[in-house]
Amino acid sequence: MSGPLSGLRGLELASERSAFAGKLLTGLGAEVVLVEPPAGDRTRTYEPFLADEQGPGRSLYFWHYNTGKQGLTLDLDTERGREIFRQLASTADFLLESEPPGRLAALGLDYADLQPLNGRLVMISVTPFGRTGPRAGEAATDLTILAAGGPAWMCGYDDHSLPPVRGGGNQGYQTASHFAVMSALVALLHRNRSGAGQHVDVNMHAAANVTTEAGSYTWLVSQEIVQRQAGRHAATSPTMPTTVRCADGRLVNTTVPPRTPAQFRVAYEWLESLGVAGQFESAGVLRNAFADESMNVFLAGEDPHIRTKMVAGRRALELIASRLPAYEFFTGAQERGFQVAIVYAPEEAFEDPHFQARGFPVDVYHADLGRSFRYPGAPIRFGATAWEHPSAAPLPGEHTAELLARLGVGEAELRQLRAEGVV
Asked: pTM for this structure?
């Protein structure tokens, strides 16, 4: 392992809420042991399945969230299972869990129980509303976290007779997982200086609430409510649409329009190169904009002249987009320094030359199936350390014998543990 967490070992109690955090920690180079009940984590039954055939080791959902991890089955409701877990925790660098508040304490496996065994242990708990407080015992799903936390309110269409839209891909869980990873990294850095571990409680609702861009602080500062807008930031007042249909019928988002004199000049010259500058009714405004070195776009809300120039810049990009195929507009804008986006289907993103060049798609070999499958690769690219190339998600209990052997459990005892349903 060569990532920044190379040499560190962690335990992860299987849960869909924190699975992405474990995946990221593995990618950072840590050895992560996924602890499942003997029957396997329930996400192994989540669709879609390989070739639409349900069965052990065929859930693509489980594959994605558990690449790179080692697999251990352990019944924590048995005394022997808890004893084994304590042994593993006594030498672990971190423990990642998302159990219902009170569950680990009832088992004698909470931080207060493990810390005396391992004073350097960093424990990261991911809970819907925090482990303490009046809402600690409330149930939650990814949908309710996104709805109650605020992101869903800010996602949807300009037509507010339509309901808000929940972002796909378990964004509530993944947002909390990112906070879990950041917290783990800070706690591990603190341990390097102090020698002491600590317990971190990640509140999923709070994580979602502070991931609303201007939504939360607009309310906190001025008691104004932002409104959702299709393809652009939610705002207290409507802004110009940014999604445009290109000459080939595909969609792009023009996102950030020209903001500096140099960018206004580039936009005008792009219009000229396409032979449409003469058809652009605001061409004169663009020329004035790239000659105005004193223009401050941040005053557009107060100065109608600046606002007119900003609108002209947006309209110029829209006209250019309407005359070009989507990918040509996308790459042409990027080359000219404009932040625009093309609307891709997931499989199209995989094939984009930029993602290909950065090595984002990776092939992961599944030994049990004798073939490789293409996965999303590293979400982060470091300058000095490598992101770990993922191995396939573990089969149920795949590494149980190997991991227990480290604790001195021999083959005869392992057979007995299996007969008793402990592993």
From this structure: 0.92
